[in-house]
Amino acid sequence: MLRGGRRAVYRHPLAVRVWHWINALCLLVLLVSGLQIFNAHPALYWGKASTFGKPWLALGTGDAPAFPPWITLPPWQDLAGGRHWHFFFAWIFAVNGGLYVLYAIAGRRVRRVLLPTRAELASLGRSLADHLRLRFPRGEAAREYNPLQKLAYLAVIFGLLPLMLASGLTMSPGLDARFHFLTVLFGGRQSARTVHFLTAWTIVAFFLIHMLAVLAAGPLNEMRAIITGWFVIGRKGET
Ligand code: HEM
Asked: I want to staple 66 with a disulfide (CB 3.0 to 4.6 A). Which of 26, 60, 92, 106 is the partner?
């Protein structure tokens, strides 16, 4: 028990914290190196082939790159360099994510911490309304993730991140030769590239909302928890 009736609870096990920070670093490097790769041909298509004349989306105009140097890795135009960074961190991202999913399922984190109960699902509307008003659970109720948070994390862990990986693997000629069903599933290599690009920006959108939620819920307490594991409840004004 801490002073003022506050209590520290162990919220994030070491495995979750290690996964979380390696994942955040990987996604940052993957985004900026991915934009470098995208700049080499800043247009997107659906289907099997790139019909240069009729892109689904074209972002580059004339000589100016689609994404400016400050947001690409390396900052200067270097497709080979961008691919080296991208593929190196993609493997770390895949192994790290795979280990976390194994841990979360076998260690029952999915069932105990991430899956919302029936009662929580029934109160989803209220939880959404509270979120929109930036009202977050306090005291004992803040011990666990709220239902909206649980659904968002499940969608990221079992939806967006695997989709990112699968659409990326589909674009690799070696993997296409071995696991051609992936290319068929995405409806062609160009569709996989478009899905990969759109998924990356959906993850960026999740990240911005994630940061907003951390700021609104009490950034010091939240950051302490995701770094050390310990989360303080019962504190006036913060939780
Ligand atoms: C600077 C970057 C980031 C910060 C400061 C941050 C912060 C946090 C915090 C404070 C929590 C715990 C929330 C709570 O206890 O209520 C958390 C959990 C989580 N974050 Fe992040 N985050 C960052 C980047 C990311 C990214 C890039 C992703 C994935 C796209 C991500 C996905 C998650 C997930 C899935 C959880 C729940 C994990 C679990 O409980 O097993 N985070 N984050």
From this structure: 60
Ligand 1 contact, 222 CB (< 6 A)? yes
- Given a cut of 60, whether residue 238 has pLDDT beyond it is no
For residue 126, how many other CB atoms are within 10 A of its CB?
12
Does residue 239 lie in a domain region? no
Cα 151 to ligand 1 centre (Å) = 13
Pocket test for ligand 1, best of 211, 226, 233, 239 (most atoms within 8 A of CB): 226
Give the helix/strand (H/E) hosting 10.
Answer: strand 7-10
**C-alpha dist (Å) from residue 154 to 35, 74, 80, 93, 133:** 26, 33, 34, 17, 23
Give the CATH number of the domain where residue 123 resides: 1.20.950.20
Residue 238 falls inside a structural domain: no
Measured in Å, residue 119 CA sits from the centre of ligand 1 at 24
Number of domains in the chain: 1
Please answer whether residues 93 and 30 qualify as being in contact, where contact means their C-beta atoms are separated by less than 8 angstroms.
Answer: yes
Does 87 reside within a domain?
yes
Ligand 1 centroid–CA 133 distance in Å is 21
Tell me, in angstroms, the distance from the centre of ligand 1 to residue 16's CA: 10
Q: Render pLDDT for 55-108 as a digit per residue (tens, 0 to 9).
A: 999 997 767 899 999 999 999 999 999 999 999 999 999 999 999 999 999 999
pLDDT digits (tens, 9 = 90+) for 135-182: 888 777 888 999 999 999 999 999 999 999 999 999 999 999 999 999
